Amino acid sequence: MHTAKSVDDDAIQSLASFFENLSGNFSQSAPVSGWNRTSDPCRNNGFSGSLPSLTRISGLIEFTAQNNHLSGSIPNFNFLNLAQFNVSNNEFSGPIPPGGDRFTATSYLGNPELCGDPLPVKCEISGPALQATQSSNLSDGSKSNGPTSSEILMYSGYALVGSIVILVVMLKLCRKGKKKEESIEETSNSFHSKEKDGSTTYTYASNEFKSVGMSKSEVSMGHSAESAPVSSSLIVLTSPEVNGLKFEELLKAPAELLGRGKHGSVYKVKCEEQGMTLTVKRIKDWSLDVNDFKLRMKRLSNVKHPNVLPVVAFYCSRQEKLLVYEYQPNGSLLKLLHGMTGQTFDWSSRLGVASAIAKALAFMHNELRLDGIPHGNLKSSNILFNKNMEPSISEYGLMTVDNPDTSPLINNTSQQLNSDQNETAFKADIHALGVILLELLTGKMPMVENNGMDLATWVMSVVKEEWTVEVFDRALVREGASEERMVNLLQIALKCVDRSPESRPSINQVTVMINSIKEEDERSMDVSESSFTIKI
């Protein structure tokens, strides 16, 4: 028996002691003749007994024990490492262990009860004998022929990781298919944003919104374009420049979050290939179905006024709606009044905005009253200015009335509202216009800071104490604006915000009253410019 030189001397001495005790042919005191790294004392020595497992010796390269009286089963060896193996002419029984067929039958001849490859004798052992033999062989060679416990753990880990990877891939494929079916609900996830510090939240009645223009957010849209339906495209209503613009292209374009409110978010989108900048309004949680929404959009596109910002295109699905407008570069009335932009906003400009808004709202009410479509969400952040600082009402007809003294509108353009509901809905717009007039007069937010009062309640409480002048914006007072005309406009605003909808004036009455103040103000300016003094 030869071992590799890596086997230490202790292992060799231990093995020598084993062979010295195998047979009575050797005395306890006599050394095993010829035992060294090059000679073999095992063969032709008349050894008897059974062999122990020798698989623990990883450096074993040769085992020759022929012509002895060794019995029992052949233990497991690491046959791949053996250069020579011979146990012929012994009394071994049972099957040749796995891997033993690496050597020829001559290595096993002379063992009548030995079976299995490479011998021609097939094993027919069964029952307890076979189980005992297999158990013995497994216990002898589990560390050398079979995989080790660490290998089993490693392979199990590989299998587990592979299963997890396959499961994740299948889940992603399922989710991707589901996203294509659910359309805009998943594609709208492209409008993820990282808001910067400094944004301010204001609350008026049940309407919560972020101050437009006071904070900017960076938005990435590109990654969700894949979720859009393959056939998705924008429905273009009024702008020929938008023709051909695809929904996927809109999502891929760079965008900036302008504001986020109760009903959705507003984004500035730069379509570089088309050379235009658009505003995209994302509406959420609105129960109007797709067909009714399309009917409403087409109806609104047929009603045009120079001071009402039209929807140029839209996209809709079961879950959400996207509306596309031409971008208005000078921001909103909310920003102009409260955004500390440094722009002067004098009395005549404020009066002009009030007049333009009232006229536009009157036109829309008169055209859409039978359709039961008021604005529904009128506020200073929805009054936008174009490059010439001309105001426009945006988002007309997109929302139900959001006012505490009204019942929700029936979200179905195919059903006419009854007269009471119809009138209440339009009177809610009058209330909202009154709040805008109060903002123009006071320079204050819809929710007055520090006292937690809404603007209308605060103004009425001040006027009740006969401190009317105290409500006006100090910038207007310093400018020398006519106190009489400011008081007249204040009286109109207070009528509009009356707690009883029935007591509020109609939009036509409001328009006439505001125009009367504006004309009087213009006449006074003309007289002032034409008058002069001669001193002698």
UniProtKB/TrEMBL annotation:
InterPro entries: Kinase-like_dom_sf (IPR011009), LRR_dom_sf (IPR032675), PRK1-6/SRF4-like (IPR046959), Prot_kinase_dom (IPR000719)
Bilayer-crossing regions: 152-171
Alphabetized UniProt keyword annotations: Membrane, Transmembrane, Transmembrane helix
Coiled coil regions in record: none
UniProt key word Transcription regulation: no
Domain (Protein kinase) ranges: 252-514
Protein's UniProt keywords contain Membrane: yes
GO molecular function: ATP binding; protein kinase activity
Name this polypeptide is given: Protein kinase domain-containing protein
Source organism of this protein record: Mikania micrantha
Organism classification: Eukaryota, Viridiplantae, Streptophyta, Embryophyta, Tracheophyta
